[in-house]
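Reopening this ticket.

The earlier resolution said the output was attached, but the attachment link was broken on my side. Pasting everything inline this time so it's all in one place.
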Amino acid sequence: MTRAPVFRTRSQRETRAFLTWIRDHESEIRDVAEGTSRFLKLTEMKPYVFGTSIFLRFRFTTGDAMGMNMVTIACDRIVRGLIESATGVPCVALSGNYCVDKKAASINFTEGRGKRIHAEVTLDASVLRDVLKTDAASLAEVQYRKNLLGSIAAGAMGYNAHFANILSAFFLATGQDPAHVVGGSTGVTCIEPRPDGAAYMSIFVPDAPLGAIGGGTSLDTQSEALRILGVAPDPERPGLAVMRLAEILGGAVLAGELSLMAAFTSSDLARAHARLGRAGDGGGERGA
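Inline output:
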């Protein structure tokens, strides 16, 4: 999890001095941050500068928690209790949007925030034909023309069919923050024909903040869903439960993408909407 306070200096000279101080006192900053929680570890401090504005992007591991509250508290302790008093440089905002939280952003795509999830499957020609009513070449063409070229034409930040549908349902069911769907929706779907008519498919979710404890995970229905999934935090092995949750989410996103992509190739999308739409006249809506 990341948090990036923004500071204001009075000159480029002061900016350089500030960055030097940060670099020279990294171990002290780490001690202060990690003193706020035994599950918190500071792994990186990355600066970005515009003139007299300095953004410090702190990256932490947070055990089984999604960690937004943990890193906010830690950064506040670092900033108020150490950096401002030692440097005289004021913090303008504890979050300077370089984190970046609940917004689609290139830095989260390339460097990650929350969990970065990869999932893959290879399907035989018989499964494609008999179960999904499609074939490898058709799937690969829809991937190329829809998910790749169509997204480029639209200036989209996601190269997928409908990650957001699966993410939002999963987040609500398991007590995650639904506002983080925006980051996860920037992911990529890949499809490749393989020998003998098989198809390889993979998905990449670059930015999925997840927690197995804290927040909405303590609600009755959501905690029951986590138990059904076998997601049970162990204080002696922090981080394993949320990794299981991320693996399950990856499988769900992969299955959802495969289902919709196959529906495009078999012309079942509109028929399914008309037959299964919740409105009696077939007027139910689903985005894709």
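Reporter confirms the inline version is readable. The chain has two domains: 2-93, 114-276. The domain at 114-276 is CATH 3.90.770.10 (3-hydroxy-3-methylglutaryl-coenzyme A Reductase; Chain A, domain 2).
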